């Protein structure tokens, strides 16, 4: 049982070596996306009451 756990642990660490980048940060001049999630916080509008707005899911 210990040998199996050790083998799985070793497999886990050796399989995480792939550092392939899936995404690349591009400037807005190239993507044409100009949106900024800038919110004005107030006592009635804050992260505790409207968490989805602050996470960008609004």
Model description:
The chain is mainly alpha-helical and 58 residues long. The protein has helices spanning 2-15, 28-31, 51-54.
Q: What is this entry, summarized?
A:
With 58 residues, the protein is mainly α.
Structural category is mainly alpha
As residue ranges, the low-confidence spans are: none
The averaged pLDDT comes out at 80
Number of strands: 0
Q: Distance between the terminal alpha carbons, to the nearest Å?
A: 49 Å
Order of helices and strands: HHH
Give a short account of the largest sheet: none
What integer value in Å does the Rg equal?
22 Å
Shape estimate? elongated
> What proportion of the residues is helical, as a percent range?
25-40%
Number of helices: 3
Share of residues in strands: under 5%
Topology:
Layout: H1 2-15, H2 28-31, H3 51-54
Question: What keyword list fits this structure?
Answer:
single chain, 58 residues, mainly alpha, 0% strand, elongated
């Amino acid at each position: 049982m210990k040998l199996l756990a050790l083998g799985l642990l070793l497999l886990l660490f050796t399989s995480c070596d792939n550092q392939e980048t899936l995404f690349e940060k591009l400037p807005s001049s190239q993507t044409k996306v100009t949106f900024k999630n800038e919110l004005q916080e107030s006592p009635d509008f804050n992260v505790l009451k409207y968490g989805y707005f602050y996470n960008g899911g609004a």
